[in-house]
Design a protein that fits this description.
Distance between the termini: 47 Å
Radius of gyration: 23 Å
Main location: nucleus
Keywords: Developmental protein, Nucleus, Stress response
Number of strands: 9
Strand order of the largest sheet: 1-2-9-5-3-4-8-7-6
CATH class of the largest domain: Alpha Beta
GO cellular component, one term: nucleus
Oligomer: single chain
Protein name: Probable inactive poly [ADP-ribose] polymerase SRO5
Strand content: 5-15%
Shape: globular
GO molecular function, one term: NAD+ poly-ADP-ribosyltransferase activity
Helix content: 25-40%
Order of helices and strands: HEHEHEHEHEEEEEHHHHH
């Protein structure tokens, strides 16, 4: 079977979140390779061809911090404006304070870059055959430093970029949906020039499965699945397994922006989602925070307890007791207090008393209900 090279102006009808207002988001017709192109040709071809015509000669306007494989897009270019609008709207409150400095497009100018594009198209077609015509191709954000992004664009993802987050969602590359860049932005470090950078990638998701916190999964659980999500109905994480990181991810755009140096105030949990009457902390958040203070072996042990509880091998009370025994109440108090004050924005003195009271209750072995359960919400 012959495959033609992927042309920037014709991406074979691959769909993404940057649709025009008159493009239907849902269709009852089952997509195929043929009708994909026809259904989305208006959006795809006009958007991408616009970027070609306005930026093909823009190499002289490139930011000096990026390599020659990235071509800068400018204000007024349709692709530039679509990405900028999508990015800013996805930031919520932070969007009003963020300034998009530049957007670059991967030109795939080298021989190896062209080969990676062709490989991606081959896997799209293979996934379409596997899934009955729909490869479930989406866009996702990946955050990194300037050097990391340049390395990805030039060489692809490497093993050291695999995010296992101490096993929180398995071993793979974590990306955020194109309409929700917040999770990536939270983790970005500020460069010396004050910029932060995000990579917008095209992803082959195929059929996704739920990956629960505490998973040590490194590949699809069966041949039925191809990728992972933290939530199928409203995902905040796309998990592309390490086995697929350079076949199912195609880096396409880099967005560089400025934002306030301190971001926590912009990402506070809405009042409707808070639980002010109980100093709760989600267990995945607890594991993530504890991993900063504990050795990897201890963190993995806590993850194992959490997984055992999810699999109903141990009771909730046993889980809490094992965590307290492994971590110690002093560190738990500190971590939970920090979570409440910094993430939920509650009063430090008030929260300190609330947390200490919860741990004190938890230490009372004669109580029927373990008081520590008031501090940790299992999810």
């Amino acid at each position: 079977m012959e495959y033609t090279p992927i042309q920037v102006r014709n991406t074979d009808g691959i769909t993404h979140g940057f649709t025009s207002d008159n493009t239907p988001k849902n269709s009852s017709q089952k997509p195929t390779t043929t009708n994909y192109a026809s259904r989305h040709s208006h959006d795809q071809e006009s958007v991408i061809s616009d970027s070609e015509s306005s930026s093909s000669g823009a190499s002289s306007g490139q930011l000096p911090s990026f390599n020659d494989g990235l071509v800068r897009l400018f204000e007024g270019d349709r692709v530039h404006d679509l990405i900028k609008r999508r990015f800013v709207s996805g930031l919520g409150l932070l969007g009003k304070q963020a300034t998009v400095v530049a957007i670059h497009r991967n030109s795939y100018s080298g021989v190896l870059e062209q080969a990676r594009m062709q490989s991606f198209q081959i896997f799209v077609k293979a996934m379409e055959n596997k899934c009955g015509g729909d490869a479930n191709v989406k866009f996702g954000w990946y955050g990194g430093t300037r050097d990391e992004i340049c390395e990805i664009v030039k060489h692809g993802f490497s093993a050291r970029m695999i995010d296992n987050s101490n096993g929180l969602y398995g071993c793979g590359i974590y990306l955020s949906p194109d309409d929700s860049p917040v999770e990536c932005v939270k983790k970005l470090s500020v460069e010396k020039d004050g910029l932060r950078h995000l990579l917008l990638c095209r992803l082959i998701l195929g059929k996704s499965e739920v990956v629960h916190p505490g998973s040590d999964q490194c590949h699809p659980s069966s041949e039925e699945f191809d990728s992972g999500m933290d939530n199928l109905s409203s995902p905040k994480k796309y998990i592309l397994w390490s086995t697929h990181m350079n076949t199912h991810i195609l880096p396409e755009f880099v967005i560089s922006f400025r934002a306030p140096s301190r971001l926590k105030g912009y990402f506070r949990i809405p009042e409707s989602l808070r639980r002010p009457n109980s100093p709760w902390m989600p267990f995945p958040a607890l594991i993530s925070t504890l991993s900063k203070f504990l050795p990897p072996t201890t963190t993995k042990l806590i993850i194992k307890y959490h997984r055992d509880h999810r699999e109903k091998k141990i009771s909730r009370q046993q889980l809490i007791q094992q965590v307290r025994k492994t971590v110690g109440d002093k560190l738990l108090i500190s971590v939970i207090k920090s979570f409440r004050t910094e993430i939920l924005g509650t009063s430090s003195n008030f929260e300190g008393k609330r947390v200490q009271k919860g741990v004190k209750n938890a230490m009372n072995s004669d109580e029927k209900k373990d008081g520590m359960e008031e501090l940790i919400m299992h999810t």
